[in-house]
Amino acid sequence: MRKLVYKITEEKSQSQSIYHIEFITDRTPEWTESQYLRNRDTSTTMELVSDEETKEKPVSREVKLG
C-alpha cells in the first residue's frame, strides 16, 4: 500500500481554500489524482506532498500538517 498526502487548493471567485488529504491506496498517484479531480471544478489543484509505503488499510481522510 502507498500513503499519498496531497495539498488541495480550491479557487473560488472571492476566496481560496487549502487543505490536505491523505490516501492509503494500492493505486498510483496519477490514478488517485484523476479520480479525485474528475467531478470537481477545474479550479481545484492537487500537489503531491508525500508518497511512502505503509501497512495501513485503505482509507482517505483530511489531515492537518505542520
What is the straight-line distance between the termini?
24 Å
Multimerization status: single chain
Question: Order of strands across the widest beta sheet?
Answer: 3-1-2-4
Q: How many beta-strand segments? A: 4
- Give the H and E element order: EEHEE
Residue stretches low in confidence (pLDDT < 50, at least 5 long) are none
- In one word, what is the shape? globular
Task: Give the averaged pLDDT, no decimals.
Answer: 93
Rg value: 12 Å
- Give me the secondary-structure category: mainly beta
Number of helices: 1
How would you summarize what this structure contains?
It contains one helix and four strands.
General description of the model:
The protein has a 4-stranded antiparallel sheet, with helices on one face. It starts with a strand and ends with a strand. It has one helix at residues 29-37; strands at 2-11, 16-25, 44-53, 59-63. It has 1 helix and 4 strands. With 66 residues, the protein is mainly β. It is globular. The model has no long low-confidence stretch (mean pLDDT 93). β1 (2-11) and β2 (16-25) form a beta hairpin.
